[in-house]
Amino acid sequence: MDCMSLWEYEEECWAQGHALVCGCDEAGAGPLAGPVYAAAVLLPRYIDIPGLDDSKQLTEKRREGLFPVIQERAEAWAVAFVEAEEIDATDILSARMKAMQRAVDGLEIPPDFALIDGNRDKGRSAAITVPHCCVIKGDSFSASIAAASILAKVSRDRFMVEMAERYPEYGFEQHKGYGTKYHYEMLDKYGPSPIHRRTFLKKWEERR
Questions:
Q1: By the 8 A CB rule, do 39 and 78 touch?
Q2: Which of 69, 68, 64 is nearest to 50 (CA)?
Q3: 51 vs 49: CA distance, rounded Å
């Protein structure tokens, strides 16, 4: 990540008078199983966290290494999630928005403004209600969003590893719930688990 552009969006917000600007991102919109997670992070201005980048650009080992550093050095951070059952009852976009708003609400220091990764800020049944702007590919351009992307991704991955112990037949520790060939093979063999998103399995069910 280019250090020169790392704070560009935060700087714009500060210039507009928003003193406390958090970044927010989610992880796990696409998997067939498990919750969608979100994190919100409020960083000290211009703090240097070596290696900070979009979570998707980092190895699992690097993300795990940055996770406690971000927690320790952030002014405030929070992680939230929405369960598979609620995703099925609403829709994934609404669940993503709800998880991100929950994360922002969970910050010990309430932010003046939030930078939200992506280009959507509301679904059918949930929306981002804090003052905010959307940043396309924000996890590549904003330090705060990049930090949030790492907390969300690591938190969700850890949860799916725990679920692998509860439902070992699906191999959640390998694919974290995403629709890999192996995952579909185990679905064919065992059927859905309690943490599968049934609305994500409609095509699979049609093929059975």
A1: yes
A2: 69
A3: 6
Q: How many CB atoms lie within 10 A of CB 34?
A: 24
Q: Name the β-bridge partners of 127.
A: 122
Per-residue confidence in pLDDT tens, the chain, 208 aa: 445 578 999 999 999 999 999 999 999 999 999 999 999 999 999 999 999 988 889 999 999 999 999 999 999 999 999 999 999 999 999 999 999 999 999 999 999 999 999 999 999 999 999 999 999 999 889 999 999 999 999 999 999 999 999 999 999 999 999 999 999 999 999 999 999 999 999 999 988 7
Residue pair 76/42 in contact by the 8 Å Cβ criterion: yes
β-pairing verdict for 21-27 and 76-82: unpaired
Q: Are 150 and 143 in contact (CB under 8 A)?
A: no
Amino acid at 133: C
Is the model's pTM score more than 0.90? yes
CA distance 24 to 79: 10
Strands ordered across the beta sheet of 132-135: 76-82, 36-42, 21-27, 113-117, 132-135
Cβ proximity of 68 and 18 under 8 Å = no
